[in-house]
Amino acid sequence: MSRRVPCPLCWAMPAASQLLLPLCLGLLLPPRAPGCLDCFSTPQQRLRVCQFFLGHASSRHVACLGALQAAFLPHAQLVVGVAEMEKLKDVFSNVIFSLEQKGMAKVPYQVAVPEAVARIQPELAQLKPAPACVPPCGYQKDAQVYKCASCSRVECQLPLDCPVEDVWKNEGERTTLTCRVPFQTPPDVRHSWKFVKDLRTRDLSLFRDLHPGASSSIVLRPTRGSHRGTYACQLAQEDDVLARNYFYLNVTASSQGAETELQDMFRAVLQSPAGRGAEGRLPGLSELLAEPDSLHKRNVVLLMVGLALSALLGTLLLGGVCRWAMGRP
To answer: Which single residue of 31, 164, 219, 238 could bond 246 by disulfide (Cβ 3.0 to 4.6 Å)?
Structure first.
């Protein structure tokens, strides 16, 4: 009667060496997807559990490992929030330890393994799932999950760059741009702003920095035509970029905006040395024309305004005289 050798590699292995034994046993087990027990224990640890139950020289280690695999198979597809990952690890680390204790106490693995599976059910039920990913963009740390099927963390499959949001304003109005995302952000999140004039784009190489260390909002007051363009706001925590918001500010020209610019220009003329006489009074026409730079832009504007006011005053006086004459008997 021939004796069956478990694995060709194990036949030549010295009895004192156990380095290749997990590999040999693994070759005899059917292929399977990882599960929580595999994620949080090594092949050597699982083999040691069976050795506690059966002894080091037993030929039934493969059956014991198969029983472990079958018993914990329902947890192969377990998914928890990444914040609960350490608790999940502790649960299965404790399973390995408790099975070793049962093996040392000579409890059959056919009894100890199902008991261990039943004991961890309430603990696993208390683990919280991750919040759902909130589209359309952003690195959402709290929404990451841990999957036992792949022994890995899985993030939301969303881009960092949010879509460009159009903002419509008239010249002269107040514009407030606020950097918001639809998911929870940490309290120490940092905001930084960039701007590119006229273009509607998300190409960061075209932007220039605005307000380093700025808050979550910027205010334009009043809004001008030169403010037209794309504003980018980046949210970051330490070295992680959480999201980027984009706003394209459309500025519509208005009569109010033109009047505001004219008022600013007229105020600048009046406040300049050329716009005032020696005693702080407004200069006369002859004084303006006597200046060497009499046809300077500011003086021309002042002359036009003076002529318009004079014409308006003359019209009012002429109308009053006519009404007085017509009213005489």
So the answer is: 164
Tokens of 199: 């273009």
Long-range Cβ contact pairs of 140-144 (< 8 A, separation 24 or more): 140/183, 140/242, 141/82, 141/240, 141/242, 142/81, 142/83, 142/183, 142/184, 143/183, 144/81, 144/82
Scored b (16 or more CB within 10 A) or e, 196-206 reads beeeebbeeee
Amino acid identity, residue 57?
Answer: A
What span, in angstroms and rounded, lies between the C-alpha atoms of 288 and 269?
13
CA distances from 248 to 142, 207, 227, 233 (A): 30, 13, 10, 12
Tokens of 329: 């008997």
Rounded to an integer, what distance in angstroms lies between the CA atom of residue 131 and that of residue 143? 5
User: What does the alpha-carbon distance between residue 253 and residue 170 come to, in Å, rounded to a whole number?
Assistant: 6
Distance in angstroms (rounded) separating the CA atoms of residues 44 and 23: 9
Q: Are the CB atoms for 184 and 132 separated by under 8 Å?
A: no
pLDDT in tens, 254-312: 765 555 655 666 566 566 655 454 445 555 555 545 555 545 555 556 667 667 767 76
Q: Which residue has the tokens 């002859």?
A: 286
Cα radius of gyration rounded to whole Å, the chain = 41
User: Closest Cα to residue 79, out of 152, 142, 138?
Assistant: 152
pTM assigned to the model = 0.60
